[in-house]
Amino acid sequence: MRRLLSICLILLSSLGLWAQNSTYITGNIFDNEQRSMALSGVSVRNLSTNNFVVSDKDGHYALLAKKGDLISYSLMGYHTDTVYLVNLFPKNIYLRTAVKELPEVAITGAKVSPYLDLKDYEAKSARRFDYSKERGGLRLNLGFGKYRKQQEKEQALEEEAEINEEIAKNFNLAVIKKLVHYEGNDLDGYIGLYRPSIEAVKEDRPFNYTYYIATTFQEWKQLPPEARRLPPLPKLKAKQ
């Protein structure tokens, strides 16, 4: 009898000590993006004791816990959140939506329906005539070849204009005089004879104008005086 009484006293004292160190952790659980939306059915588990509860329709929960316990909050479709209790104040939890990433799909082949209209209505059409013996005569087709060629031509002209502007900026009287320190008055002949061509500049990008001027100027100086000048322009024939 005394032994049974001693065991009961020990159990009661242990329960009393545990009750003194434990209480309920309470709070509410919400969606992180829509913070006014309460989440019901969230599993709130004390990982230190394996006790758990489920949040009600208002997202409220109350779980027996003590300082130092780990509390997890989990709900399907949301990332699980885990909190280490440094105090037992009420805690509101905001769970983030779990975004499921779809696996990448490698497309090895595709079949386009003939009923799909894939015409680009912003493109300008160009007419062309195509004579075919098999079809027995003249066939008129609508295509975009002429428009594409026109675009390529305009692009080439723009590129040539940019290169011409670059040449004029780097191969002119002021630049040449400063580089070669030449005091003569016949540099117009050198500029006319040795002006870099658009093709030469395009082939050697970026074009080294300093090296080009230094080498070609020495070549020009070695020419006889009559060869340094530009040939005169041909005279126009008078209309009869």
Present the secondary structure layout:
Layout: H1 2-21, E1 23-31, E2 43-46, E3 52-54, E4 60-65, E5 70-74, E6 81-84, E7 93-95, E8 126-132, E9 137-143, H2 145-170, H3 173-180, H4 187-194, H5 198-203, H6 209-221
Parallel strand pairs: 1-7
Antiparallel strand pairs: 1-4, 2-3, 2-5, 5-6, 8-9
Verbal overview:
It is built from 6 helices and 9 strands. It is of the alpha+beta class and 240 residues long. The model is unreliable at 14-20, 125-136 and 138-143 (pLDDT under 50).
Report the end-to-end length measured between terminal Cα atoms: 151 Å
List the strand order in the largest sheet: 3-2-5-6
Low-confidence stretches: 14-20, 125-136, 138-143
Strand content: 15-25%
- How many strands in all? 9
Describe the largest sheet.
4 strands, antiparallel
State the helix count. 6
> What string, H for helix and E for strand, traces the elements in order?
HEEEEEEEEEHHHHH
Mean pLDDT across all amino acids: 78
Q: How much helical structure, as a percent, in the residues?
A: 25-40%
Structural class: alpha+beta
Shape: rod-shaped
C-alpha Rg, in Å?
A: 45 Å
Question: Can you tag this structure with a few keywords?
Answer:
rod-shaped; 240 residues; 6 helices; 20% strand; three-stranded mixed β-sheet; alpha+beta
Question: Could you provide a short overview of the structure?
Answer:
With 240 residues, the protein is an alpha+beta fold. It has six helices and nine strands; from the N terminus they run H-E-E-E-E-E-E-E-E-E-H-H-H-H-H.
